[in-house]
Amino acid sequence: MDDLPADGPGTPPLSGMSLDAMRDFLVAMDEPPYRAKQVFQAVQQRGQLDPTDMTALPIALRQRMAEQLTPALALIEEQASDDGTTKFLFELADGKRVETVLIPEGDRNTVCVSSQVGCPIRCVFCASGVEGLIRNLTTAEIAEQLLLVRARLGERPSHVVLMGMGEPLLNLDALADAIRLWTNRDGMGFSPRRITVSTAGTPSKVDRLIELELGVNLAISLHAPDDETRARLVPGSPKGRTADLVEAGTRFARKTGRDVTVEYVLMAGENDQPQHAERLAQLVVGRHIHVNLIPLNPVSHQPDLQAPSGNACHRFVNILRDRHVSVTLRTQRGEDIAAACGQLAMERSLGE
Ligand code: SAH
What we know:
By secondary structure, the protein is α/β, with parallel strands linked by helices. The protein has helices at residues 19-28, 35-44, 59-68, 139-153, 172-183, 203-212, 227-233, 242-256, 274-284, 310-322, 346-349, and strands spanning 73-80, 86-92, 97-105, 108-112, 116-118, 133-136, 159-162, 195-199, 217-221, 260-266, 289-295, 326-329. S-adenosyl-L-homocysteine binds at residues 119, 121, 125-126, 163, 167, 198-200, 221, 263, 265, 294, 296-297, 299, 341-342.
């Protein structure tokens, strides 16, 4: 699972530029270096992606910048669900599309961000991998999703989860730069503790995330308690022992001092039986791991896959609880607008 090169344009859009990159860019335009911070703050603190809006800058500079730069994303559709979940469909400069979802829940506003167009992992229950990986998103394309949703919301969202389209740890360099932009004190100042990177990936990628010391949380999309079941449900994940991935999660928890979440989509007859719960408990107990069970949200490309009954879900929960595993059962959001987990951008690309 090597990182693919990000397929971005030559000059990254403003939303992807670090303070240093912005300084280089402005100095090359014969501007004084102090302008860099002004522009950086306008973009990252106030979400101004159009240079003509930056009224603190001289008009001539605004115009010259506007001629050279275009935003990374264009909002082409916004759909609100009855429960307040809002789905944003963005078009990239090359015409590809990704989605970002805003999920309000009490006093939380969580933004679900995409990291790739398509996905190579091909979880059987997830729409993002149906057509495989198309390409990695650039730093700007990742960072700008949050800037735009924040502008739409009128305030800084409280949480970010990398649970949109794509496998974040296969685009880790671009993602890490986007996270550094969001968390920069001269920018949005987003707390990394409120950012969760979700992965179906490999132990070595988790170790690389540990080394980067970004301060973010980790969620591991396990979905199965043994190698055979996991190979069936998560066929695009590299071969390897499921236990090794859990072990990498434990290393992450020990190094960062924060518990790791294991995500487990429950599917009737596939991974919801008592013996699956027993094995899962053995795998995670005493390892600083919290298990989040997610009853399957049905997807049209796999009509045979179904969520277990409420009773079966609770039986699963109880087995884990009895074995002293910290566990929650998630409720589904945004189903009426196909913004629920695993449905992103599929309906449109399949022409439904
Ligand atoms: N590739 C990363 C990020 C994608 S988010 C990863 O696998 O972690 C993946 C999460 O979306 C899964 O863990 C699961 O919680 C959720 N998901 C995807 N499809 C789903 C479906 N059909 N029903 C319920 N949850 C789903």
